[in-house]
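Private note to self, pasted from the team thread so I don't lose it. Backbone tokens:
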């Protein structure tokens, strides 16, 4: 990705609804170039989609938590089944399969701490394959708006992002 691709990506991450003409003007290129570059970013899989970001507080889901889950017996099938089960729950924002003592880390957003307690006790702790469930309430959550390639200064000497 060159500087123009990165500028396009930054602008689209801030506002995916802007017109191609607005994007081109902001980046300082012709509209046809902006369209061609955006299409190329999508075809290369750099841009994976466009979506609407929602305010969880306004959706009545102002309490967020991270829930770590240890699964036994530990097998690919058990972990993938638990991952998919957690991902299908409406409370879930994200599911991570992780290393260490836990197998899953689940990010949830719910209406209240009482709801969170009931969710953990009634829907998670009762599952026999979940041998350890721990909950951490999130005080504050900030998601960066922009994602881009890391500068080469952050990579080991002689390495590129793809080597």
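Design output:
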């Amino acid at each position: 990705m060159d500087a123009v691709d990165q500028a396009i990506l930054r602008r689209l991450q801030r506002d995916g609804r802007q017109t191609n003409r607005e994007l081109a003007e902001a980046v300082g290129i012709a509209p046809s170039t902006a369209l061609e570059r955006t299409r190329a970013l999508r075809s290369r899989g750099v841009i994976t989609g466009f979506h609407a970001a929602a305010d969880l507080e306004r959706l009545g889901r102002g309490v967020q938590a991270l829930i770590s889950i240890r699964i036994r017996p530990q097998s690919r099938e058990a972990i993938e089944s638990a991952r998919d089960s957690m991902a299908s729950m409406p409370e879930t924002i994200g599911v991570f399969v992780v290393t260490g003592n836990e197998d899953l880390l689940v990010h949830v957003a719910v209406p209240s701490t009482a709801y969170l307690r009931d969710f953990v006790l009634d829907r998670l702790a009762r599952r026999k394959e979940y041998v350890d469930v721990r909950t951490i309430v999130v005080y504050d959550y900030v998601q960066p708006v922009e994602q881009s390639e890391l500068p080469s200064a952050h990579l080991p000497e002689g390495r590129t992002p793809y080597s």
